[in-house]
Task: structure prediction
Amino acid sequence: MSLVGAPHPATPVWAYNGQVPGPEIRVRQGERVRIVLDNRLSEDTTVHWHGVRVPNAMDGVPHLTQPPVGPGETFSYEFECLDAGTFWYHPHRRSFAQVGRGLYGPLIVEEREPLPVDRDVTWMLGDWRLRKDASISDDFGNLHDVSHAGRIGNTVTVNGVVSDVFGARSGERIRLRLVNAANARVFGLTFEGHRPQVVALDGHPVPPHEPGGRIVLGPAMRVDLVLDMVARPGSRFKVVDSFYKGLEYRLLDLVYADTPLRDAPPDRPVNLAPNPVAEPDLAAAQRHEVVLQGGMMGMMTAARIHGEVVDLRAMTRQGLVWAINGVAAVGHVHEPMAMMERGSSHILAVTNETAWWHPMHLHGHTFWVLSRNGQPTPHREWQDTVLVAPRERVEIAFVADNAGDWMVHCHVLEHQAGGMMGAVRVL
Ligand code: C2O
Ligand code: CU
Result:
């Protein structure tokens, strides 16, 4: 793949169907999909359908929901897409290396009544650590990345290329689906000269609103925007990522063609119909504390590994530096941190005791984000991944209505590998 473009050499990648991102899978809400994984890597893999409420056996978690798919083997995934929205797929086996080498792709489930827009565009944001010769640095899973912010690269791509321009026309209305497929990088985007409206988060509709600052996407998160092209023909504006202080850069330029599409973008409303997600009963919900611990500048001194208390030094020798509720997880099979009766409502109170950001992902379910540091969220948004700031406490709620063992983990893939994962069991 030519990620960086001429005159740099091409980058050897791992890819789905030879392309990065992998093919955009597009289906209509309520349709069944069948996707055959044919593993031609030289190591085991699986595919996880991030955010899609699939049956447990289709969730793609090695050992927990299926055997890993070995080199030369195939596995057929088949499920119904209950929810419309922007989803994505990626391996769940050594994902810090497999995703970091290019294995990810978009899964778009169209509403039965799609938003009337001129164009429906996906931007998959990728982050790469490249050497001078444009090859991928193979220092995956090194202890420094694992114990700090994760593998943050030096090259950001949009749909697999270092993008220079995104062409548009005056008067155009664009639905822009942003997907953060990076291992660890958080994006904080601003569209100079434009006022995009957020219409969905992690695929699920929110009341359309202006973001009020940067559009923040932690790893694995999605934001759907309606972007109205309100400027004059021939003009040019920057899209900037300024999430990390002092490391601001231009993602790409919006470049207007010389001929307008029409005088002004349509001003029809941009509300999406809700997805059929069951609303938790907050009064009856069971509460669970989920405490995130460890990492550099953390206070953790020991954690349990396979039931035994191990001090931080010995943990570190095994590459484990993170824990949830005092447990540093190895592999994908865990003693569940909670047992949930099918159909019951649950509140997880997630407390981040660490000095780092953690995008916490729950498999098989979609949750409400109820509050942050005790303050109710303005939109009580549905998400499958919630970005938790250092020292922040976030409450989420959901109905445990999908039977099976489901992972809860940090989507900074190095943090996940370093122990920040667990599971809940829905009986
Ligand atoms: Cu997108 Cu368990 O992952
Ligand atoms: Cu994390």
